[in-house]
Design brief:
The complex is a heterodimer of chains A (176) and B (393).
Chain A lengths: L3 H8 L12 E7 L4 E9 L5 E9 L2 H14 L4 H5 L3 H7 L8 H22 L8 E3 L10 E2 L6 E2 L23
Parallel strand pairs in A: 1-4
Antiparallel strand pairs in A: 1-2, 2-3, 5-6
Helix pairs in contact in A: 1-2, 2-5, 4-5
Chain B lengths: L3 E2 L10 H13 L9 H21 L7 E4 L2 H16 L6 E5 L4 H11 L4 E5 L9 H7 L4 E5 L13 H11 L2 E5 L11 H4 L3 E5 L10 E5 L14 H4 L7 H39 L3 E3 L10 E6 L4 H10 L2 E2 L1 E2 L2 H4 L6 H5 L4 H5 L1 E5 L6 H20 L2 H9 L1
Parallel strand pairs in B: 1-11, 3-4, 3-5, 5-6, 6-7
Antiparallel strand pairs in B: 2-8, 7-8, 9-10, 10-13, 12-13
Classes of the chains: A alpha+beta (176), B alpha/beta (393).
Chain lengths: 176, 393
């Protein structure tokens, strides 16, 4: 199911770890869908990302995305790094299965949040802790798709017109 | 093939006798059991024999109470939708079920809810057990069906079906049980259980995939799911998958004959797995009930890591296991079963299901534990949750 590049980045992930005196930290995701990603940045005076590290809780795609993303961002200026999109990451990985595309959103989001955090610190604002987000941005230009039959559906649909599956997150009643 | 299969609930190699019978059938017995000539007669004979073998496995009174289907899912859909449709006008549109049913039950019920049926779902305790008292309380005047699974495919807990059956018998309500992970694995007696409908699947007891069964007690009001010819006692139209059905029949006979031996083998290995997990991996939770549990299934939540990562790493070592993490399931939802027994979202994501087979040995388990140890260590070193937990310690 995964491309060779994805499997390579999963088995041999680049830039794993944390930076204790990071210049910017971004945290995204939540365990509801299985993924959490933290990106740490070390930025030099020329605004170049000197070092970048990640910690990820997530599936094979999530780990591969983190690894590829950090590889793409390392050595870039902040301005160039801001331009990295989830699509770039997915393409660099030779594509991801459709139901894993949301993992690539996580990578780009975390990087942009880390940059936000760095810029906030730089501008002298009191910043306690990393920039954090628990929501994925769904506005990535494409429509959403049904994870069961792959049909394109409007972003706010509750039922897939193609196969009748509901698209709600939690269908089932919870514990007592 | 060199793969250590610890995921028998998904993929199990059929028994050699099953393969032989199926090859015989496809080679020499290709007739249509409904035909009036000798090609049909020979096929009908084989069909009848398989039906008896399966009826015997579950102690059905009449072999015609066994309906062959394509899968456990089809059986479940048939039972639930068939009874709901048959009784809507004369009795009502209310159904009682539990929070940890298989997706086939829950989605069939959701489809019915879209057609104005009402569903009450009873909760489970931290082991996954249903309280029969809760089921009794949920039953109303317009209840037409109770559906509670016999054993759970994710955590292995075995439900008090006999007690629930007494209640439904008393209140005269049709009782369906999803017994897909039970039939052919643990003793099932439909008379003792007081069930009217029972769903099961051939690939759970070393029969072929693509064949299932539905026990329908004589007198149960139920519409067919598939309309057409009068096959399966007019309950399930369509020319029968004789090749698969013959395979299922042979598998049923072997399961009846070898059940005690198999259970003893599974129990020994299961204890070995659980002991090994506790010894080798820190911060784990074994899910389900310590005694009321399938002998061949272990569910373990491993903190701070996600399940698909483990499955991929073990696959590299030629070991097959299963996970119920949201990402791996493709549906992007955390397991409702694990959430229902009180696992938090993150722990639900890191849950592995090991399901044993007759060919597994202690050496297999040793290899599994070694590979798991390495995989967990690697994934924890990458995990922000582990980093936070260790930092806080």
């Amino acid at each position: 199911m995964y491309s060779k590049t994805v499997m390579d980045h999963f088995k041999n992930p680049r830039n794993v770890g944390e930076i204790t005196d990071a210049d910017g930290v971004g945290e995204v995701g939540n365990p509801l869908c299985g993924d959490m990603m933290t990106i740490y940045l070390k930025v030099n005076k020329k605004e170049v990302i000197e070092d970048i590290k990640f910690l990820t809780f997530g599936c094979g795609a999530a780990i591969a995305v983190s690894s590829m993303l950090t590889e793409m961002a390392k050595g870039k200026t902040i301005e160039d790094a801001k331009k990295i999109t989830n699509r770039n990451v997915a393409q660099a990985l030779e594509g991801l299965p459709k139901n894993k595309l949301h993992c690539s959103n996580l990578g780009a989001d975390a990087l942009h949040l880390a940059i936000e955090n760095y810029e906030a610190k730089k501008s002298g604002k009191t910043v306690t802790g990393p920039a954090r987000s628990e929501k994925h941005e769904h506005d990535h230009g494409d429509s959403c798709y049904c994870p069961y039959c792959d049909a394109d559906v409007p972003a706010d649909s509750e039922i897939c017109a193609g196969c009748g599956h509901t698209l709600e997150r939690a269908d089932f009643p919870m514990a007592k | 093939m060199g793969i250590i299969n610890l995921d028998h609930i998904s993929s199990a190699e059929p028994a050699p006798e099953v393969k032989k019978a199926m090859i015989d059938t496809i080679s020499h017995n290709y007739g249509n059991p409904s035909s009036q000539h000798q090609l049909g007669d020979r096929a009908a004979e084989a069909l009848d024999k398989a039906r008896e073998q399966v009826a015997c496995l579950i102690n059905a009174k009449l072999s015609k109470e066994v309906v062959f289907t394509s899968s456990g899912t089809e059986s479940i859909n048939h039972a639930i939708k068939g009874v709901a449709m048959a009784l809507a006008e004369e009795k009502g549109k209310h159904i009682v079920t539990s929070n940890i049913e298989h997706n086939a039950v829950l989605r069939a019920l959701r489809r019915l809810r879209m057609m104005d049926y009402k569903v009450t779902s009873v909760p489970v305790d931290e082991h996954g057990l249903v309280d029969p008292g809760d089921v009794a309380k949920a039953i109303r005047d317009d209840t037409v069906l109770v559906s509670v699974m016999h054993s759970n495919n994710e955590i292995g807990v075995i439900e008090p079906i006999e007690e629930i059956g007494k209640i439904t018998r008393e209140r005269k309500i049709a009782f369906h049980s999803d017994a897909v992970t039970s039939v052919g694995v643990v003793p099932i007696d439909v008379q003792k259980l007081n069930v009217d409908l029972l769903s099961f699947a051939s690939n759970q007891f070393y029969g072929p995939v693509g064949v299932g069964g539905l026990y329908v007690r004589q007198g149960t009001k139920m519409w067919p799911l598939l309309d057409g010819g009068v096959q399966e006692n007019n309950k399930r139209a369509g020319t029968e998958n004789l090749i698969g059905i013959v395979g299922m029949g042979v598998a049923a006979e072997l399961a009846s004959r070898d059940m005690d031996k198999r259970i003893a083998h599974y129990k020994k290995l299961k204890d070995y797995v659980i002991k090994g997990l506790h010894e080798r991996i820190e911060e784990i939770i074994i899910n389900g009930h310590p005694e009321l549990s399938l002998p061949n299934l272990v569910s373990v939540s491993i903190k701070y890591i996600e399940g698909e990562g483990i499955v991929l790493m073990l696959d590299e070592e030629n070991i097959a296991v299963s996970t119920r993490s949201a990402c791996a399931a493709g549906a992007l939802q955390a397991s409702h079963v694990l959430l229902s027994i009180g696992r938090d979202f993150a722990d639900a994501q890191g849950t592995l299901v090991v399901s044993l087979g007759v060919e597994n040995t202690e050496a297999d388990i040793d290899r599994f534990l070694d590979a798991l140890d390495t995989a967990v260590t690697t994934l924890r070193s990458m995990s922000p949750l582990y980093r936070k937990a260790v930092g806080a310690a």
